[in-house]
Amino acid sequence: MKRFGFLLATGVALLALGGPAFAADAPVLPPAAVKTATDIQGKALAGSGAFGFVESLTVRVGPRLAGSPAAKLSHQWAEARFKELGLTNIKVEPFTVDGWERGLEMASITKPVAHHLHVNALGHSVTTPPEGIEAPIVRFDTLEDLEAAPEGSLKGKIAFVDKKMSRLQDGGGYGEAVGVRGKGPEAAARKGAVALLIRSIGTDSHRFPHTGITRYAEGVTAIPAGALSNPDADQLNRVLALGQPVSIKLVLSSQAMGTLNDANVLAEIKGRELPDEIVVIGAHLDSWDLGTGALDDGAGVGIVLATAKILKSLPQAPRRTVRFVLFGAEEVGLVGAEAYAKQHAAELPKHQVGTEADFGAGPVITFNANVRPEAKPVITAIGKILAPLGIVPGRGPSSGGPDIGPMTAEGVASAGLGLDGTDYFDYHHTADDTLDKVDPKKLDQAVAAYASFVWLAAESPVAFGPVDKKDH
Ligand code: ZN
Ligand code: ZN
Asked: Do 248 and 386 have their domain in common?
C-alpha cells in the first residue's frame, strides 16, 4: 500500500497506471499531505509560539547591527534555539561585512529662525567634521530633480530631497521612494553639495527618522547623508516657504569600522524521501541599531522558528528536506544572502523553492509563486488550502523576499506569502520598531500560512524549479 501511495503521488506513475484521463481526475497534492497542512494551520492558530521567539531575540539580544558584537550574540542565540527545537545539520556559516557605527547625530535650522530637527545618519554615511557643517539648503522634490540640477549648482550647499512615500497595503510605495536613499549622496556630491538630507522613507507622522543603507560611488566625494523625520521635513518646508535663505547645521559622527565577521545560521529537518532536495524558509537575523528590530526582522525570525517547531512536532518528517536559514547582514546590502548563494552554489539546482518572511508581523494576505509551468497546478492547489486563512492570489510572480534574490538569480523557484504592510513603514528602520508593535495573533496566522506552505512544497509530487534566472 505504501508503495502504491507513493506511485500515485508521481505524475509518471499516474500515466503508467491509467493514462491522462486518470491523471486529470487525481488530486494534485496527496490527500494525506493536505490533511496534515490543515492540522498545521490549526496548531499555529491555537498558539504558534512565534511571539515568544521575537520577545526572546529582542530582549536577550536587542538591536543587531551587521558585524557588531550583538550580531555575534544573535548567531549564538539562533544556534541555541535550533538545538532546543531538535533540528539537525545546524551550521554557523561565516562571511565578512563592512562595519559601521552611528555616533552622534544633530541637525538644526540656524537661519532665518532656529529650529531643532530630528535626524538619523543613513547606514554607512561618512562623518561630518567634528564641529559639523553649516550651509544653505536647496530643496528638491525628487531624486530625478536633484540629478537634473546644473553642474556645480550645489557647491558648498546641503541638498534636501523631499520625496513623500505613499501608504499601500503591499508596501509598493517603498520601491518608488527608496531610490534617493541609495543614490542621493552620489547625485548630490556630483553637483558639489557638502551633505545630503532626505525626508524619511516612511509613512508615519512621528519624529523618529528612518535609517537604511546608502551607497557611495567610486571616484565621487563621499558626503555625509541623513534622514529627517517626516514632521521635521514638514517644518523645514514651512520655513522654506517664508521665502528667505535657509541654513542648516548638521553634525554626524558615524564611522567605518573596517572589515568585520558576520554569519548565516542554518538548520534542517531532513527529508524522508528526497533528502537532497531542499525547501528554504528564511528571515534575516540582523537589524538596524535604532529600535530592537522586532518587525524588521524579528517577526520573520519568529515565523521561521515557529514553523520549525510545528514541522518538528509532526508524526513524520516532510518528503523533502526543509532548511531554516537566518541570514546575516541583510540590511547592509544582502551580504549574507549573497554569501549563502555562493557557498551553496553546487546545491542550488536541488533547491525546490525559497521563501522569506521579511515584511513585518502579519497577517499574510496574498500568495504567489514563480515556479516552472508543470508546478503551477500545485501552486493553485496550495492557494486553495491557504484561502481559509484569508489569503488571496498576489499580483504577478513572486521574488520570494530580499534574501531569496541571489538564489532566484541562479534559477531557484520562489514563493511569496505577502504580509499586510499597511503600517509597516510607520516603524521600519526607526527607533520605534519595538516588540509592542507585534500582535501575537496576527503572527500566529502568518505562521499558519508559512508552515502549511513549506510543508506542502516539501510534499509536492512535482519539482517547482528550475525557473528562468532573474536579476534581483
Ligand atoms: Zn528586513
Ligand atoms: Zn530593513
From this structure: no
Query: Which CATH number goes with the domain that contains 350?
Result: 3.40.630.10
102 CA distance to ligand 2 middle (Å): 16
Q: Residue 240 is part of a domain; what is its CATH number?
A: 3.50.30.30
The answer to whether the beta carbons of residues 413 and 453 sit under 8 Å apart is no
**DSSP E strand stretches across 186-329:** 195-199, 225-228, 247-252, 255-269, 274-284, 320-327
Q: How far is the CA of 267 from the centre of ligand 2 (A)?
A: 23
Report the domain count for the chain: 2
Distance 359 CA to ligand 1 centre (A): 7
Tell how far the Cα of 317 is from the centroid of ligand 2, in angstroms.
Answer: 33
- State the ligand closest to the CA atom of 332: 2
Domain span holding position 374: 2-100+259-471
What's the confidence (pLDDT) of residue 10? 40
278 CA from centroid of ligand 2 (Å): 26
User: What are the Cα distances from residue 463, in Å, to 279, 319, 380, 441?
Assistant: 11, 12, 14, 33
Residue 227 CA to residue 118 CA, distance in Å, equals 8
Listed residue (49, 56, 67, 99) closest to 298, CA to CA: 56
Q: Indicate if 76 and 39 belong to the same structural domain.
A: yes
How far is the C-alpha of 247 from the C-alpha of 241, rounded, in Å?
A: 13
In this structure, which ligand is nearest to the CA of 331?
2
State pTM to two decimals.
0.94
What is the pLDDT confidence band of residue 398, given thresholds at 50, 70 and 90?
A: confident
212 CA → ligand 2 middle, Å: 7
Task: Kindly list the protein residues that place their beta carbon closer than 5 angstroms to ligand 1, a single-atom ion.
Answer: 296-297, 358
Enumerate residues with CB within 5 Å of ligand 2 (an ion). Answer: 296, 331
Model confidence pLDDT, tens digit, residues 174-194: 999 999 999 999 999 999 999
Q: Are residues 280 and 380 in the same domain?
A: yes
pLDDT tens digit string along 45-63? Answer: 999 999 999 999 999 999 9
Ligand with the closest atom to the CA of 290: 2
Residue bearing cell 518528517: 317
The pLDDT of residue 349 is 97
- Nearest-ligand number for the alpha carbon of 429: 2
Q: What confidence score (pLDDT) does residue 399 get? A: 86
323 and 429 in a common domain: yes
Q: pLDDT at position 6, please?
A: 35
